[in-house]
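tool=predict chain=A
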Amino acid sequence: MDTPAGTGTAAAPVTDTPRRAGLVLLSLILVAAVANLNLAVANVALPSIGQAFDSSQTTLNLIAVGYSLGLAASVLYLGALGDRYGRKLMLLLGVGLSIPACLLAAYAPGDEVLALARILGGLSAGMAFPTTLALITALWSGPGRTRAIALWSGIGGAIAALGPLMSGWLLQYFWWGSVFLITLPLAAVAFVLAVLFVPSHVNEATDPVDNLGGLLSVVGVAAVVLAINLAAVPNMGAVALGLAAIAVAAGAAFVIRQRRVTSPLYDLHVAARRIFWVAAVAGIIVFGSLMGAMFIGQQFLQNVLAYSTLEAGLAILPAAVFMVLVAPFSAKLVDTRGSRFTLLAGYAFCLLGFLTMLLLWKDGSPYWQVGLGYALVGIGVGFAGTPASHSLTGSVPVRRAGMASATADLQRDLGGAIMQSIFGALLTAGYAAAIAAAIAGAPDGDQVTANTETQLQKSFDGAEAIAKQYPQYSDQITDAAKESFLAGDHWAYLAGIVAILIGAALVLLRFPGKQQEDELLARYQTQDTAPVS
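tool=predict ok
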């Protein structure tokens, strides 16, 4: 049921665009680019990291998802702190903290430290990234806001897609840690531009921050992501169940807290608005699918197709190109046909992309099949990204811009963390099961020791290491590892297809059409600007 917003200070009048709008938007896009690049650079380096540290597939999953974990866990709380104490200040703190986080990741002495460094980097992004969309919401209105969000979403997604390309080039000449240094020059430029051009104290809240609610949100999101990652790990079932129980308890306590506290961290009255919550869920699925596809795809390209790191990075260019090209058309479709139509168009292309990966991506696949899968997913995210973010920002009062932007970030980061975790867990389980079956069915399988079998099941890199130790069986081991990896990634692609179909059904059945969407947004604006009695 659509309900009025909670009480609070009425929003100040907002002009269509801010002064020096181009420079302000450029500054915000570059700040977001720091987070987007840091989010994407690890995937292409995972095989190199696995070889350097002899990492298990589960540890590699945690390294890949660590940045999203830190960001998703902190974004609600840090977004609220920015709303209250200064969005520009929070933005600058986040960009500044990203520098030592990148340095720690680049020179990490072990994979555990690297995973922790990635989580720290995610926390720095949790300070800066939600602030960018919150400021766009506060500084722009009307069609200008839609266009600004389209540029922010399309360029941000493209930059994230270009991260593996830059990482792949660096890995041709430098060590694995070099990929985490990519954003340092960009962070310096973004910091200076933000200081010079981003306005301070724009429609910020005066209500106190719900610190307890913030801590509960951090614990709940972190526990969910870790539980999914550990679910497929042998002998970690009890830990995964414990984390799941913590997540449920923290989530329940968070909801109770938000219903009772005078100044909630997350206004559940606003979140109950149909345009808001359906867009939030739809965005989580579509952005999560993109991150999951990049995560699995990079390992497929290097492990199965034997692409170099540079070739693997180049392979995803179609996704980046089409995200940028489609974003302006997405904004026009939102204005003319509505968010539901545009979201469904995006879901259709994402579905085609995952079907391409499931049916065509196999050992020996030519590049056109790889590029087609990435292109379709890029088109899908290009169409769906704008309405997913626009619906959030358009359905909340300006004083709740931080809540809308935090939710938009959760679409990307919680969606990415959850989908990467699910895909990674399925890849791990499918790979281990297929390897075990291959060993059991081998003529001399009974001669494989328990330690060797454990190493083979650990990860693709573990199997490659065993192949080098036993060159007489090298071809058989490598072929079995490739077939097992393909079995695992098929499980992941099927999960993505199911998620996309569920999201499309939700949008089709619950998101309003163009006319009703306009009526609801007008009603929300009237409610949110009415004097508080």
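The two ends are 22 Å apart (CA to CA). The domain at 21-209+263-438+478-529 is CATH 1.20.1250.20 (Growth Hormone; Chain: A;).
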